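Many introductory courses stop at the sequence. We go one step further.
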Amino acid sequence: MTTVESIISPLSLTIKVAVLATAGAMIIGVTAAYLLSRKKFWGRDMLEVMLSLPLVLPPTVLGYYLLVVIGRKGFFGRWLYENFGVSLIFTWQGAVLAAMIVSLPLVFKSAGAAFAAVNKQCEEAAATLGASEVTIFFRVSLPLAWRGILAGSMMAFARAMGEFGATLMVAGNLPGRTQTLSMAVYDAVQAGDFQQANFLVVIITVVSAAILYGSGKLLQTTWR
């Protein structure tokens, strides 16, 4: 039976997971994109492949890799549990990590294209005036590339909202704890509650369509 709680709970959790996952993807994706667009170093191509890999790998495969890394028997998960008593498996924090990994390539690719389009003469002029690399990044490159970065981050947010496979592998589907909108849709269909499934599907579709429209407008403005 459809209740307010059965809708509000997965909706609020989905928003929290998507916001935190997008923030993490922005920090990692923008930093990596800037370094890869400006620096030459050994392993650069391999790093770019690794950061783009979640774009093509099935989410369940990504979820399996995460289990290998952060599970109780994983090298990082065991260290985290033995030293701090923390486990990310079957928690909403694990859902954030899964959504961040899945959505990371969208920020990384968009930011890379945005930084590539920045006029290098502006950066060179700032360097000539004595600005440090950090200052050039925050005062020149980032402001000139912000539309592309924001468009990629909006798409990452939409992707994080709809994430299912990796989240199911890492965080499970626990109502009130780790059940996001996509999980709630799956449960509603399994239970034959198509009224709730329809309502949740409409929410995800409308939000995703609005985000795609907004990101498309930003990119059109950038290219004009």
